[in-house]
Amino acid sequence: MEGVSGLRKIVRKIDHRTQDKMDLIEKYKDFLNHGKTERECNASIIKAAKDAGYKDINDCSHLKAGDKVFVSKWNKTVALFNIGTEDISNGMNILGAHIDSPRLDVKQNPLYERDFVVYLNTHYYGGIKKYQWVTLPLAIHGVVCKKDGTVVNVVVGEDEADPVFCIGDILPHLAQKQMKEAASDFIPGENLDVIVGSRSPERLDKEDEEKADCEKSEKSDNEKSKKDAAKKAVLAILKEKYGITESDFGSAELEIVPAGKARDLGFDRSLILGYGQDDRSCAFASLEAMLDTPSGKRTSVCLCVDKEEIGSVGATGMASHFFENAVAEVVARLAEGGNAYSELTVRRALNNSNMLSSDVNAAYDPMNGDLYDRDNASFLGGGIVFNKYTGSRGKSGASDASPEFIARLRAILDDAGVNYQMAELGKVDQGGGGTIAYLAAKYGMYVLDAGVPVLSMHAPWEITSSEDMKQAYNAYKAFLTI
After folding, report:
1. Residue 175: its pLDDT value, please?
2. Among 109, 194, 367, 404, whose CB has the most other CB atoms within 10 angstroms?
3. Are 140 and 148 in contact (CB under 8 A)?
4. What percent of the chain has pLDDT over 90?
């Protein structure tokens, strides 16, 4: 009986761990479903932070140990601070991820009708394989900012009652020329226009056809009106449903993303299929670790930035002064008892910090194993991935992490029982990639790339492992305590 009782205890412990893992994964899939743009991710992060007791820094005149605040920029970039007991000049523990993902952006003058079909003209964002985006059900997410200051939130294609959108492709019977072209060329970027409406062509009688042949160079106002009938019908729907006019596209930010929810993948449900897992998988794990970690000696930070997929540029990218300014705001509010604000304190805080650049790595693909150095590849289910350096070919654009810092992390994660793997993106001459690590390293802080492996990275639907999400969460929590 004693043996049976002991077995039951073990089973209960296993069930509890499995349930904890599933709760995390269900929350993660919900995060993906409600965060298909950087704006939506930013809103989800701030809501979760507020629910956990974080306050907008603009509502705080002074800060002390134990206080929790957030700083946001343009609804696209956010930093959470959990103030520690140590002087902030001793440095912070920072988890830094990005919340933008490859997609299609709607152009400023996008709506047009061609031969009875209405399209939205797009410009792709980030590194994509263009052919992967055709013939998929697509959704439109974003905002339209009107001249009166009204901001209209748009999400169409996610609800089962919504219409979806699509990019057409050539049927195989007529694709002989297309099939001979390079994959990078046979779907031109300008052809990634999204179908949003149509109308039936009017049938012409013989007399009309003869008249049309005689007037090819000039079309009557009536004919022009007929030509734009489908476009006008679409504009009428936009006006009725959202109060949007055609000119409002000029101040809109609309993103085309895959329609549908993240799902469990495989009979054993060991994998996750979803859009935007690069890099929202690491952003989510960082956020959860941050919210679940109590205040400690060092100030901890969860930083989620925009524009990484196009070079971390602009006011909301890591190359901007957003994070530096956010730290300065925190330092200014920590100055109490007549102590003056010090720029040197800001510089020391950044210089003495530790950071995990929470970004994904390429998972080993058994179907294309020749692209990887298998001994230095990351595997689905193998745990969080450490990339000592990124870059391409001769480490161009790399942030090369300090081995002393890596050794400290190894010791911490081994003590915490966290599974991790050391890897590179692929074979040396195959290509490469980068993260925000090098932009943080310029401050002199310790930085290491650490994230989950992703299969089919940058595809409309990416694949991750539930186990890796759990290990990333545990790793980030352990890191915040150092």
Report:
1. 86
2. 194
3. no
4. 78
